[in-house]
Structures are given as C-alpha cells and as structure tokens.
Fold this protein.
Amino acid sequence: MGLRGGAREAYACCVDVQVGKLPAPPEVNEDLPTPVAPQLAKIEDPGSWARILPYAARLKKTSRRNFLVTAGVSAALAGDMLFTRHVQAERRATKILRVPDSYSDLYFPKASWILFPGYKTSWEEAQWILNSLRPALHQRGRLAAIGYSNLGLDVDEIVRELILHVRELGLEKLYFYGHSFGGMLATQVAARLLELHGVETQLIVLDSSPFSRADVLDQSWFDGVVFLYENGFRIPSVLRGGYELGERVAHKDERTWRQILDQTMEQLSPIAPSSVLIQTESAYIYHFDGLRFAGKIGGARMAFLGNSDDGTVNYESARAGWSKVFGANMALPTLSTEGARPAHASPQWNGGLYRPLLEKVQNELEPLPPEPEIPSYKEPNGKVIRPA
C-alpha cells in the first residue's frame, strides 16, 4: 500500500509538471490583458489646498452672479420666443378686431365703422388708430378693424370675415375708413359686399389713399418689393428694419425722432406684419385698378382726406383720380390735414386734427335722425303737461 501510494503521488507530480509545460494557444495570449503593477496613490501637499481656497471663493461669487444673469436672459428669451410663437400663430388668419366702446355699443348697435389699415400697419396700430379717433367715430357706430393675415393679403378672406361679422351683430349700416392703401381695399370690399351679399356701404373715408400705383412717390423701392415678391424672394425682417430706419431718417422733416424710433422698432418686434404680408400689400397696390369698381359701390358716399405736404403719396394726382372715377360718390370737397406730422395718413399721431374733420364728414354725409318729440298733453287752459 505504501508503494502504491508513493507511485500515485509520483505519477501525479509528473502529470502536473507535464501539464504545466504545455504551451497556450496563441489566440489566448493575444486576448489576455497585460497585467499592470499597482501604483501607490499620489499624496498631495496639504498646503496646496490652502492656496486654492481664495480662488474658489472668488469663483463662487462670480458663478452665482453669472448664473443669475444667464438665467434671467434665458427666461427673457424663452418668454419672447413663446410670445412670438403665440402672436404668429394667432395672426395666420384674417380677423375682425373689435374695439369695445360702451357708448356706441349702446346707442348704435346696428352700425359700425370698419378700419382698413394702411401699408405695414400692425393689428395693434390699427386699434391705436381707432382709439385715437374714437370720440368722433363712436357718434355713428361701433368700432372694428380688419386684421390682415401674416400669410398674405387675401381679399376673399376679408370679405368672408366681414360678412360673418355683419351677420353676427345684425349690422344694418357700414362706414369704412380707408387708411392709406386701405382706401383702395375698402372700395373693392364695398363693391364685393354689394355684388355678392347685397350689403351696401354708407360711407367710405379715403385717408391719403393712392388711386393707382402711379401715385406712390417712392417708385424704385415700391417696384423692387413687388419684383422680388413675384419672383419668390422674401425680404428678411432685419433687412426690412434697416430700410425702415434709413427711410425715416431720410424723411426726418416729416417725423419726430420719437416717431422714427417707435415706427422702426415696431417693424422689428414680434407684433410687426410679416414680410410676406407687406410684399402682398405692395403687389395689391401695384395691380389695383379703380376703374373696375366704378359704378359698383351703389350709393356709398366718399370723402377724401389729404395733405399737400405728403411725401409718400402724390396728393394732387390721387385726389384727382378718385374724384374723376367716383365723381358720383364723392360728396364732399377734399378735406385738408395740413399740419399733421407725418403728413401721410397719421390719425394715430394727430387725433386732434383728424377728429373735427371726421365729425364734419359725418354731420354732412350721415346726419343723425332728428330726436323724437317728447309726448305731451295740452290742457284747455293752454298748459302743456309732459311726462316726468
């Protein structure tokens, strides 16, 4: 037994030695990672942390201030983006902008003034115009304005929205205020309402409205905008804002510096009309033909407001064009807005000058009905008794 046990141990030892000497396959050696000798952790000098502390304190103060500033700027930008997105989404369709007025809503519920805003006029500026003229206009009707779509000027859409407004409120009388090129549009819409829906407009006020593209004084810019639009090019807002500033400074005699700043910033703000809308407005003016609507606005009466100092529209030729083609409807001689600044279609800046003119137009062309007599009873002795 002892020999056999020793033999087994000797055999096992031999086997172990032989197995240990067997070479490993080459692919195994290639895949095995190379052992790395452990390294001792580097010991920092405790004094180095003391030298870092002052810098860390200053970094803490700077970071907090920068964080607050950055957070504030980011919040403002995010709010501006959300506001811009909301505004642009809301203004993708034409809308009737109502201006509440307790007096006219109560005493003239079946009549309404409709403002057709001028070239590059925003929704907010349109309502500003109505509020400036409110003391005069609300003596005949309620107040509303057309808010043009930022996707472009669409006459069919304007007529559709307006007739829905008329039916919703049960309006029986319409008075149109055409602000600058809005006078062209007001005339066409009046003709379409009468033709398609049998709704006749009572009065159309033309505030410095060109009769044709020939009345526009800045022909080079005007022709260029239309050319670019009809060839598919859209003018960037920043470029447009730069032009607005340059054009207003060049015509400094027509405006105050405050007006220049306000009008330029408005064109760069989220509420500004889109470049597409402005280019479609230009194209509308360029192709407008007033002769198409002669004799098609029924018995609507017209009045022209203008200024010989107008640097945007040729006052003389515009007045002559409207008077010649719509002579049967032009019921008043031209009313001058001399002294207004800017001289072209500026009721929002010169309400005190415009309101008396509009009161004159209304009193002569659309007089109020006489007040009904108060019922009374005359006794035999001649004493007149009226109800309290």
